[in-house]
Amino acid sequence: MRFDSDVLLQEVRLQLKQPTLYRIVMHNDDFTPMEFVVAVLEMFFNMERTQATNVMYEVHMTGKAVCGAYSKDVAMTKVEQVMEYARRHEHPLLCSLEV
Description:
three-stranded antiparallel sheet; single chain; alpha+beta
């Protein structure tokens, strides 16, 4: 094996980029009980009761609120889980993703 002394090896620096975070937004509706929304926020977003209640009131008063920010795969999974849980309990609760 021959090594050519004229070949220079350059150090390659990898630029690691933070993944894009997707915000999960919960939307208000006139049918899902407030207590159910609080329970969902506690269960799926690991919020304490006080924080979950505050977010629920924000949803109720402004029409929507951010529940958390996650990588795309995690955010999509959480939205699917919340929506499936709401449907199973016959509530029209809606969550969406925003970049």
